[in-house]
Specification:
Layout: E1 9-17, H1 26-39, E2 56-58, E3 67-77, H2 83-93, E4 98-105, H3 113-116, E5 117-125, H4 129-137, E6 145-150, E7 153-158, H5 159-162, E8 163-170, E9 173-179, H6 188-197, H7 203-207, E10 210-218
Parallel strand pairs: 3-10
Antiparallel strand pairs: 1-3, 1-4, 2-3, 5-9, 5-10, 6-7, 8-9
Protein backbone atom coordinates (compact mmCIF):
# COMPACT_ATOMS: atom_id res chain seq x y z
CA UNK A 1 0.00 0.00 0.00
CA UNK A 2 1.38 3.40 -0.95
CA UNK A 3 2.38 6.03 1.58
CA UNK A 4 -0.25 8.57 2.54
CA UNK A 5 0.34 11.83 0.70
CA UNK A 6 -0.65 15.33 1.67
CA UNK A 7 -4.43 15.74 1.50
CA UNK A 8 -4.91 11.96 1.76
CA UNK A 9 -6.37 10.18 4.78
CA UNK A 10 -6.01 6.54 5.74
CA UNK A 11 -8.92 4.80 7.44
CA UNK A 12 -8.88 1.41 9.10
CA UNK A 13 -12.19 -0.38 8.63
CA UNK A 14 -13.21 -3.44 10.65
CA UNK A 15 -15.88 -5.75 9.27
CA UNK A 16 -17.67 -8.98 10.13
CA UNK A 17 -18.95 -11.56 7.70
CA UNK A 18 -21.24 -14.50 8.43
CA UNK A 19 -23.50 -17.15 6.91
CA UNK A 20 -23.50 -17.21 3.08
CA UNK A 21 -21.17 -14.17 2.91
CA UNK A 22 -18.43 -16.30 4.49
CA UNK A 23 -18.16 -18.16 1.18
CA UNK A 24 -17.04 -15.05 -0.71
CA UNK A 25 -13.53 -15.51 -2.13
CA UNK A 26 -10.86 -13.02 -1.07
CA UNK A 27 -10.58 -11.23 -4.44
CA UNK A 28 -14.36 -11.06 -4.76
CA UNK A 29 -14.52 -9.53 -1.29
CA UNK A 30 -11.95 -6.92 -2.31
CA UNK A 31 -14.02 -6.03 -5.38
CA UNK A 32 -17.19 -5.92 -3.28
CA UNK A 33 -15.71 -3.33 -0.92
CA UNK A 34 -14.34 -1.31 -3.85
CA UNK A 35 -17.80 -1.19 -5.45
CA UNK A 36 -19.47 -0.38 -2.13
CA UNK A 37 -17.10 2.52 -1.44
CA UNK A 38 -17.79 3.89 -4.92
CA UNK A 39 -21.54 3.46 -4.52
CA UNK A 40 -21.38 5.37 -1.24
CA UNK A 41 -19.64 8.15 -3.20
CA UNK A 42 -16.52 8.27 -1.03
CA UNK A 43 -13.55 10.18 -2.51
CA UNK A 44 -11.06 7.34 -2.95
CA UNK A 45 -7.36 7.61 -3.75
CA UNK A 46 -6.23 5.56 -6.76
CA UNK A 47 -3.03 3.92 -7.90
CA UNK A 48 -1.20 5.48 -10.82
CA UNK A 49 -0.61 3.92 -14.22
CA UNK A 50 -2.69 2.59 -17.10
CA UNK A 51 -5.12 0.70 -14.86
CA UNK A 52 -5.74 2.81 -11.73
CA UNK A 53 -7.37 0.98 -8.82
CA UNK A 54 -8.67 2.18 -5.45
CA UNK A 55 -5.92 2.00 -2.84
CA UNK A 56 -6.93 -0.69 -0.34
CA UNK A 57 -5.07 -3.25 1.73
CA UNK A 58 -6.43 -6.18 3.75
CA UNK A 59 -4.63 -7.29 6.89
CA UNK A 60 -4.72 -11.03 6.24
CA UNK A 61 -6.33 -13.10 3.47
CA UNK A 62 -9.30 -15.14 4.64
CA UNK A 63 -10.22 -18.58 3.39
CA UNK A 64 -13.56 -19.38 1.78
CA UNK A 65 -16.13 -20.52 4.34
CA UNK A 66 -14.52 -18.79 7.32
CA UNK A 67 -16.62 -16.26 9.22
CA UNK A 68 -15.05 -13.14 10.74
CA UNK A 69 -15.94 -10.86 13.62
CA UNK A 70 -13.44 -7.97 13.56
CA UNK A 71 -11.43 -8.09 10.33
CA UNK A 72 -9.36 -4.98 9.42
CA UNK A 73 -8.52 -3.41 6.08
CA UNK A 74 -7.14 0.02 5.15
CA UNK A 75 -8.41 2.44 2.55
CA UNK A 76 -7.14 5.88 1.54
CA UNK A 77 -9.55 8.76 0.89
CA UNK A 78 -8.78 12.19 -0.52
CA UNK A 79 -11.03 14.00 1.95
CA UNK A 80 -11.37 13.74 5.71
CA UNK A 81 -14.75 12.26 6.67
CA UNK A 82 -16.35 11.38 9.98
CA UNK A 83 -15.63 7.75 10.85
CA UNK A 84 -19.23 7.16 11.95
CA UNK A 85 -20.50 8.54 8.64
CA UNK A 86 -18.28 6.09 6.73
CA UNK A 87 -19.54 3.20 8.85
CA UNK A 88 -23.20 4.11 8.39
CA UNK A 89 -22.99 4.65 4.63
CA UNK A 90 -21.09 1.44 4.02
CA UNK A 91 -23.59 -0.59 6.05
CA UNK A 92 -26.43 0.90 4.02
CA UNK A 93 -24.83 -0.40 0.81
CA UNK A 94 -23.38 -3.76 1.86
CA UNK A 95 -25.21 -7.07 1.27
CA UNK A 96 -26.63 -9.24 4.04
CA UNK A 97 -23.96 -11.09 5.97
CA UNK A 98 -21.34 -8.33 5.83
CA UNK A 99 -21.32 -5.55 8.42
CA UNK A 100 -18.91 -2.74 9.26
CA UNK A 101 -18.14 -2.89 12.98
CA UNK A 102 -15.76 0.05 13.42
CA UNK A 103 -13.94 2.75 11.42
CA UNK A 104 -10.82 4.61 12.58
CA UNK A 105 -8.98 7.57 11.08
CA UNK A 106 -5.26 6.82 11.34
CA UNK A 107 -2.34 9.17 11.75
CA UNK A 108 -0.03 9.40 8.75
CA UNK A 109 2.85 7.63 10.53
CA UNK A 110 0.90 4.40 11.14
CA UNK A 111 2.35 1.47 9.18
CA UNK A 112 0.36 -0.44 6.57
CA UNK A 113 -2.02 -2.92 8.14
CA UNK A 114 -0.52 -6.00 6.48
CA UNK A 115 2.91 -5.30 7.99
CA UNK A 116 1.42 -5.10 11.51
CA UNK A 117 -0.20 -8.55 11.65
CA UNK A 118 1.41 -11.00 14.08
CA UNK A 119 -1.39 -13.30 15.29
CA UNK A 120 -5.00 -14.34 14.74
CA UNK A 121 -7.67 -15.78 17.01
CA UNK A 122 -9.92 -18.60 15.78
CA UNK A 123 -12.92 -20.40 17.20
CA UNK A 124 -13.64 -23.78 15.62
CA UNK A 125 -16.50 -26.20 16.13
CA UNK A 126 -16.26 -29.76 14.81
CA UNK A 127 -17.33 -33.18 16.00
CA UNK A 128 -15.11 -34.32 18.92
CA UNK A 129 -12.62 -31.51 18.29
CA UNK A 130 -12.48 -30.37 21.92
CA UNK A 131 -11.95 -33.92 23.11
CA UNK A 132 -9.17 -34.44 20.55
CA UNK A 133 -7.37 -31.30 21.70
CA UNK A 134 -7.77 -32.26 25.36
CA UNK A 135 -6.40 -35.78 24.94
CA UNK A 136 -3.90 -35.35 22.10
CA UNK A 137 -2.84 -31.72 21.54
CA UNK A 138 -2.05 -31.06 25.21
CA UNK A 139 0.09 -34.20 25.38
CA UNK A 140 3.28 -32.69 23.98
CA UNK A 141 4.92 -36.10 23.71
CA UNK A 142 2.63 -36.87 20.78
CA UNK A 143 3.69 -35.49 17.37
CA UNK A 144 1.41 -33.06 15.55
CA UNK A 145 2.66 -32.01 12.13
CA UNK A 146 1.20 -31.36 8.70
CA UNK A 147 2.68 -30.80 5.25
CA UNK A 148 1.48 -28.54 2.47
CA UNK A 149 2.65 -28.53 -1.13
CA UNK A 150 2.72 -25.28 -3.08
CA UNK A 151 4.35 -24.54 -6.42
CA UNK A 152 6.16 -27.87 -6.35
CA UNK A 153 7.63 -27.29 -2.88
CA UNK A 154 6.61 -29.09 0.30
CA UNK A 155 6.49 -27.23 3.60
CA UNK A 156 6.10 -28.95 6.97
CA UNK A 157 4.37 -27.27 9.92
CA UNK A 158 5.07 -28.32 13.50
CA UNK A 159 1.67 -27.26 14.77
CA UNK A 160 2.45 -26.49 18.41
CA UNK A 161 5.22 -24.06 17.38
CA UNK A 162 2.60 -21.87 15.70
CA UNK A 163 0.00 -21.78 18.47
CA UNK A 164 0.34 -19.17 21.21
CA UNK A 165 -2.72 -20.12 23.27
CA UNK A 166 -5.25 -22.97 23.17
CA UNK A 167 -8.54 -23.34 25.04
CA UNK A 168 -11.13 -26.12 25.00
CA UNK A 169 -14.63 -24.64 25.22
CA UNK A 170 -16.55 -27.93 25.14
CA UNK A 171 -16.35 -31.40 23.60
CA UNK A 172 -16.73 -30.03 20.07
CA UNK A 173 -15.45 -26.46 20.28
CA UNK A 174 -12.05 -24.84 20.80
CA UNK A 175 -10.47 -21.40 20.63
CA UNK A 176 -6.83 -20.65 19.88
CA UNK A 177 -4.46 -17.83 19.01
CA UNK A 178 -1.87 -18.68 16.37
CA UNK A 179 0.97 -16.92 14.61
CA UNK A 180 -0.18 -15.02 11.53
CA UNK A 181 1.25 -12.68 8.94
CA UNK A 182 4.00 -12.72 6.36
CA UNK A 183 6.68 -14.19 8.64
CA UNK A 184 4.73 -17.15 10.04
CA UNK A 185 1.13 -18.13 9.44
CA UNK A 186 -0.96 -21.15 10.39
CA UNK A 187 -4.22 -21.63 8.51
CA UNK A 188 -7.01 -23.24 10.55
CA UNK A 189 -7.62 -25.90 7.90
CA UNK A 190 -4.03 -27.08 8.32
CA UNK A 191 -4.55 -27.37 12.07
CA UNK A 192 -7.62 -29.55 11.44
CA UNK A 193 -5.74 -31.60 8.86
CA UNK A 194 -3.00 -32.33 11.41
CA UNK A 195 -5.60 -33.89 13.72
CA UNK A 196 -7.09 -35.87 10.84
CA UNK A 197 -3.62 -37.21 10.05
CA UNK A 198 -3.30 -38.70 13.54
CA UNK A 199 -6.91 -39.98 13.47
CA UNK A 200 -8.13 -37.73 16.29
CA UNK A 201 -11.00 -36.31 14.22
CA UNK A 202 -12.52 -37.60 11.00
CA UNK A 203 -11.94 -35.92 7.64
CA UNK A 204 -15.70 -35.36 7.46
CA UNK A 205 -15.63 -33.51 10.79
CA UNK A 206 -12.83 -31.31 9.44
CA UNK A 207 -14.74 -30.59 6.22
CA UNK A 208 -17.92 -29.70 8.16
CA UNK A 209 -16.13 -27.56 10.75
CA UNK A 210 -17.49 -24.10 11.55
CA UNK A 211 -14.53 -21.72 11.62
CA UNK A 212 -14.69 -18.14 12.89
CA UNK A 213 -11.76 -15.74 12.87
CA UNK A 214 -12.56 -13.65 15.93
CA UNK A 215 -9.69 -11.20 15.71
CA UNK A 216 -6.53 -10.27 13.84
CA UNK A 217 -3.82 -9.01 16.21
CA UNK A 218 -1.84 -5.97 15.08
CA UNK A 219 1.41 -4.65 16.55
CA UNK A 220 0.63 -1.64 18.71
CA UNK A 221 -2.90 -2.75 19.62
Amino acid sequence: MSQVKQNEYRYRIFYARSEIAAFTAHLDLLRLFQRTLKRADFPMAYTQGFNPRPIMEFALPIGVGIETRMEPFDVILTQMLEAQNIKNKLNQNLPNGIEIMKVELLTKDIKNVMSLVYAAEYEIEAENLGEAVETYYFDVSKPLIVSRERKGKTRTFIIREYIKDMQVLNQNRIKFISKAGSQANLRPDLFLKSLVNVEQISKYAALDAIIIRKKVYLKGD
